[in-house]
Automatic annotation (TrEMBL):
Protein's UniProt keywords contain Repeat: yes
Matching PROSITE patterns: WD_REPEATS_2 (PS50082), WD_REPEATS_REGION (PS50294)
Record's keyword annotation contains RNA-binding: no
Positions of WD repeats: 10-42, 136-176, 218-250
Species name: Cuscuta campestris
Lineage top rank: taxon: Eukaryota
GO MF annotation, one: transcription corepressor activity
Name used for this protein in its record: Uncharacterized protein
Entry keywords, A to Z: Repeat, WD repeat
UniProt lineage: Eukaryota, Viridiplantae, Streptophyta, Embryophyta, Tracheophyta
Amino acid sequence: MDTLQTEMTPEEHQHLITDIRFRPNSTQLATASFDMSVRLWDAANADYCLNAYTTHTSHVMSLDFHPKKNDIFCFCDSSNEVRYWSVSPFSCTRVSKQGGSAQVRFQPITGHLLAAASDKVVSIFDVETDRQLHSFQGHSGVVNYLCWDLNGELLATVSEESVKVWSLGTGDAIHEFTANGNQFHSCVFHPSYSALLVIGGKGSLELWNMVENKSMTVPAHENIIAALAQSPLTGMVASASHDSSVKLWK
């Protein structure tokens, strides 16, 4: 496990940054913020943003790039709208009124589907037609985090009280893990072990084997683990916390 040092920190947002995503096959990345803006950056020269949309009227809660059409990304806001956006030209191409207010994530590999969380419900939309294909319900608390498996066949949803794993094939919750006193905030499928889900809690990581329904708690941070990411290339998992640190695990 290593602790990363900050190399550069763009600070043009005027409020909390709510999400950050890299553009596929690029050094560019986009950030969403409570300051009602979306900004596009280049990690190779992050002293200033490349483009900015600053006239939105609601908090921008989450964003994601399309995995194949890397000129396209979408973002959701606190008014439950999803906007599809073009990088070049930097402009809105479509607005969906039936969206998400917490987080949006494109299905990996194909990008055919979009998962959007709003309150206690997660909706699955066909990206081209905007048609709702699934409505995943069952969380007792607000869903604040989404994560696809590497193949885009399973979706994990996180509330403070529990994590559920849903099958896109059947539309059913096939696995569930309760917090038991912890507070869950994030999750990611392990890049090397498909049955292992890594869950970020209030200072600790839960390593949950979904097939055997067994878990192990690993002390990790001094505060909430707000985000997790994985790298299939290295087999590593990164954790980002409100204690202002990022850690790498293998």
